[in-house]
Design brief:
With about 190 residues, the protein is of the alpha+beta class. It has helices spanning about 20-40, 105-120, 135-140; strands spanning about 15-20, 55-65, 65-80, 85-95, 125-130, 140-150, 155-160, 175-180. The chain is globular.
Length: about 190
């Protein structure tokens, strides 16, 4: 399920928040399947795993007239099982292709993921990042712990500098922002 919106119309506002409604979760899982199964071919059929049973799902929602319209990005966070030391992970970051070049959705999803985990007692936040995305995470004050291969693809285990991510105490409301109209696909620069 790539974006259902026609390319002639892209909303100018978005909200990034924790999933609170069933339709948000349904669309987030559909977006993950579209990105990780269909587009990237990493998984066959579905990308869900045991982590989904304990993870908190976050979404980026496009908004029309200030109201949420559809999921255009997602990520999940979870505390590491049995770690007991405040170790959290983020994974399955996906953004609809029509939204990748504007609106800073990926950045805002990462920010809310780390800030909300920080508010819940996270003392270390990590992610297994596909190699092509390492520069983005480094700009967001993450550092590489080591290179690795996961699911047949090059990744890097990275860790966020929590000092750059103050605790977010209301992740259900999350963050909102305006898309940059000059960066939209199909529009003149």
């Amino acid at each position: 399920m790539m974006s259902d919106l026609p390319l002639a119309f892209l909303p100018s506002e978005f909200r990034v928040k924790w999933v609170t409604l069933p339709w948000e979760a349904t669309q987030a899982h559909a977006l993950r399947r579209a990105v990780f199964c269909e587009e990237q071919g990493i998984f066959a059929g579905d990308d869900r795993d045991a982590v989904d049973e304990r993870a908190q799902l976050l979404v980026a929602l496009s908004c029309v007239a200030g109201l949420p319209d559809q999921v255009v990005g997602t990520v999940r966070i979870h505390a590491e099982e049995d770690a007991g030391d405040g170790l959290w992970f983020g994974s399955r970051l996906a953004v609809d292709p029509a939204w990748r070049k504007h609106a800073r959705l990926g950045v805002t999803l990462i920010r809310l993921a780390v800030c909300s985990a920080h508010a819940l007692g996270c003392r270390t936040f990590r992610a297994h990042v596909q190699s092509q995305n390492v520069p983005l995470f480094e700009r967001l004050d993450w550092h590489v712990l080591h290179a690795e291969s996961l699911l047949g693809r090059p990744h890097h285990l990275m860790q966020a500098n929590l000092a750059s991510y103050p605790p977010c105490r209301d992740p259900q409301a999350g963050f909102s922002g305006l898309a940059n109209p000059s960066k939209r696909q199909g529009e003149p620069q």
